[in-house]
Design brief:
- The complex is a heterodimer.
- Chain A is mainly alpha-helical.
- Helices cover about 70% and strands about 0% of the residues of chain A.
- Chain A has one domain.
- Chain A is globular, with a radius of gyration of 20 Å.
- Chain B is of the alpha/beta class.
- Chain B has 2 domains: about 200 residues, 3-Layer(aba) Sandwich (Rossmann fold), CATH 3.40.50.300; about 140 residues, abc- transporter (atp binding component) like domain (Coagulation Factor XIII, Chain A, domain 1), CATH 2.70.50.
- Helices cover about 25% and strands about 30% of the residues of chain B.
- The longest helix of chain B is centred in the N-terminal third of the chain and has 19 residues.
- Chain B starts with a strand and ends in a 10-residue tail after the last helix.
- Classes of the chains: A mainly alpha, B alpha/beta.
- Chains A and B meet through β1, α2, α5 and α13 of A and α1, α2, β4, β5 and α3 of B.
Chain lengths: ~280, ~400
């Protein structure tokens, strides 16, 4: 059995932070796999178009943003290449991020039945929600690889750095997702908060516009949003372009700090979940 | 050698209640944070409102379970059985005390936890197995046995949403039956379902016992506790009441159920009421006002009922159900009492036309169609010792003649 290796188990009152139960998480890795597997299977089983949705969503948003922000809003003038491609690249990663965050945030409440009936590290639930979004992202990214020759864009050598920014985005999503999932268990208000946090976050991240429109004196403050460095890094590794070292360093530092804080909060409150969910 | 598989030491569990629901509202939380110092000041000033905001579902529960023991946990609703199970299963932490488990633990609070209706039987076996703590490799090895045991080979690739409830339970149970823990913690939910299914559950538990596994079994079914267990623990009001040989413990529990008056001489006190408005005490009195549990058919019976506080609103009802020996409801009554903490349902209406046997009353206080404040199940029992309304000199018994006698005149 997965959690059988540990022979003697002591169950005590919930105290202060005990640290991250890494060995236990490792023992439950197969359950994480099964949660991800379930989410992916179920997502595509219930839909007619299935995996097509992974493309339809960012493509539709790209078209909308191209018309309203690019054409009517005049943002396309600041972009050197094609504005739709520019937006699509950012949106493919952003769509993954926002879906993962929103799914993870609501995941614990959605699994209340499991939480009140069986033990496993609760962290698996929001984490699984994030990983299950990676399939959609892979599909959207594959579509990007199809789009690039259409727009006559060849991949730049920086594309090798791309996994780094995907990984970074996973970390930010995991951090924010676990934090919000735990908050929503205790305070249902955060269900509403998370939807507009995601909306505001999109506009606070250079998905629709270029980094250049941010005044230099606000640049570092702006870069405290870790998704800034992730999106810029991701887009410029695909389309070619400078990788802003300061913002990227800030993004990874921010992601790490956020993750530590989120995990800390989560592991303190997780034992109470069954009582309040 | 008998060493301990489970050590339960001074375990207590407090639930904070008194808020509307279990979930907290962010605004409330902020308000209470801001209001905290103020409340503390008031309390110092002696202005404490005294409202109940916590209750102890378990209080200082200690016992050890030896390796190979099969222990049945029994007790009335609200005695803390489920809470103890949840603490043992690590679903909720204890407030005080600790538990040590020595050995591989599986806990089954229900069968089919995590089953997803869209997934096939095959997929659900893997998912459910993993949730119960099996490794993929282990599930793969046992897969054929699980399917065979569930007798579902034809439907194994059908989504379980198309299963009948019987098939669903069979599959779920089959996965659970293939766990091989050293310590099994299991809830009575397993004993629901049809007779055939119950027997299979019990059979599997018997196997586990014979294989020398330690089993902690929570049940309402005293017969299976007597058959399966070599020890029983009776929980009452969050405490261990009796611990020992299953025959003795279950007999004591039955005794308490049948006749609470053996403890308090006539007026039933509430063991475990809900925190807010609740019934506190009930008495039955005869025509001369004496408290008793024994009536003859045709006697006048007064029900005297006390609540802990005055009702907060006028539009509520106090209802009673009359139950026979088999716990079947045979009659119902309802009243809209004034806001009071003491009610009598008096005289005329409660002339008992009942046949001989044992009966009990359950009481409910509720706002109609809205919330139920309190439900006091089988609050008080009484006996109809003699029923001879026709003055024939022969008793009319419930077994042969139904629960009621209807007065009649032949012309």
């Amino acid at each position: 059995m997965a959690h059988s290796i540990q022979r003697k188990l002591r169950i005590e009152p919930a105290g202060s932070w005990q640290g991250l139960p890494l060995t236990e998480l490792w023992r439950y890795r197969e359950l994480l796999y099964f949660f991800v597997w379930r989410d992916i299977k179920v997502r595509y089983k219930q839909t007619v178009l299935g995996a097509m949705w992974a493309i339809i969503q960012p493509v539709t948003t790209t078209l909308l943003f191209t018309v309203f922000f690019g054409r009517l809003g005049g943002l396309s003038k600041q972009v050197s290449g094609s504005y739709p491609l520019f937006v699509y690249v950012g949106l493919s990663l952003w769509t993954f991020y926002s879906n993962a965050l929103s799914l993870a945030a609501n995941s614990l409440v959605g699994s209340s039945h499991l939480i009140s009936k069986v033990y496993f590290p609760r962290l698996l639930i929001p984490i699984a929600a994030i990983f299950s979004g990676l399939v959609d992202f892979a599909i959207a990214f594959a579509f990007l690889l199809v789009l690039m020759p259409v727009y006559h864009v060849a991949p730049a050598p920086q594309i090798l750095l791309l996994p780094l920014f995907v990984l970074g985005t996973i970390v930010v999503a995991a951090a924010a997702g676990t934090l919000f999932s735990a908050l929503i268990v205790s305070y249902r208000d955060f269900r509403y908060v998370i939807t507009f946090v995601i909306q505001i976050w999109l506009f606070a991240t250079p998905v629709l516009y270029t980094l250049d429109i941010i005044p230099a004196k606000w640049r570092l403050l702006y870069g405290l949003n870790p998704m800034v460095g992730m999106i810029v890094g991701f887009r410029n590794s695909v389309l070619g372009g400078p990788l802003p070292g300061d913002l990227i360093a800030l993004a990874f530092t921010g992601a790490a700090v956020l993750l530590v804080l989120a995990l800390r909060y989560f592991t303190i409150v997780e034992r109470r979940f069954a009582d309040v969910i | 050698m008998s060493s301990d598989a489970i050590t339960i030491a001074g375990v207590a569990k407090r639930y904070a209640i008194g808020r509307e629901h279990h979930t907290t509202n962010f605004r409330e939380s902020i308000l209470s944070m801001l209001g905290g110092p103020l409340r503390r000041l008031r309390r110092l000033g002696g202005h404490d409102s005294g409202e109940t905001t916590e209750f102890w579902a378990l209080n200082d529960v200690s016992f050890d379970v030896h390796v190979g023991d099969v222990v049945g946990i029994i007790g009335p609703n609200g005695a803390g059985k489920s809470t103890l199970l949840k603490i043992l299963s690590r679903i909720t932490p204890p407030t005080k005390g600790y538990i040590e488990l020595d050995g591989r633990v599986s806990s089954l609070l229900e069968v089919g936890t995590g089953f997803h209706p869209e997934l096939t039987g095959r997929e659900n076996i893997f998912l459910n197995g993993a949730i119960l703590g099996m490794l993929r490799e282990e599930i793969r090895r046992k897969f054929d046995a699980i399917v065979a045991f569930a007798e579902l080979d034809k439907f194994i690739d059908t989504p379980v949403k198309h299963y009948s409830s019987g098939m669903y339970v069979r599959l779920a149970f089959s996965v659970a039956a293939h766990l091989e823990p050293e310590i099994l913690i299991i809830d009575e939910v397993l004993s629901v379902g049809d007779l055939h299914f119950r027997n299979r559950c019990l059979g599997r538990m018997r196997d586990m016992r014979d294989e020398g596994r330690t089993v902690l079994f929570v049940s309402h079914d005293l017969t299976s506790v007597r058959q399966l267990c070599n020890r029983a623990v009776l929980l009452i009001g969050g405490r261990v009441d009796t611990d020992g040989d299953p025959d003795g413990v279950t007999r004591r529990y039955e005794q308490m159920n049948r006749d609470p008056s053996s403890r308090d001489g006539g007026s039933a006190e509430r063991v475990h009421p809900p925190p807010h408005f609740h019934f506190r005490r009930v008495e039955l009195r005869n025509q001369s006002g004496a408290v008793t549990r024994h009536f003859d058919a045709g006697d006048v019976m007064e029900i005297h009922l006390w609540s802990n506080e005055r009702a907060s609103e006028n539009s509520y009802t106090v209802e009673f159900k009359l139950l026979n020996e088999a716990d079947e409801t045979i009659s119902f009554g309802s009243a809209n009492p004034v806001r009071a903490t003491y009610y009598t349902a008096d005289q005329q209406h409660y002339v008992c036309p009942l046949t001989e046997g044992a009966y009990s009353f359950s009481f409910t206080a509720r706002v109609w169609n809205e919330e139920r404040w309190d439900f006091w199940e089988k609050a008080i029992g009484f006996d109809i010792d003699r029923c001879d309304l026709f003055k024939t000199g022969h008793s009319v018994t419930g077994d042969h003649n139904g629960p009621f006698v209807i007065q009649q005149e032949w012309l």
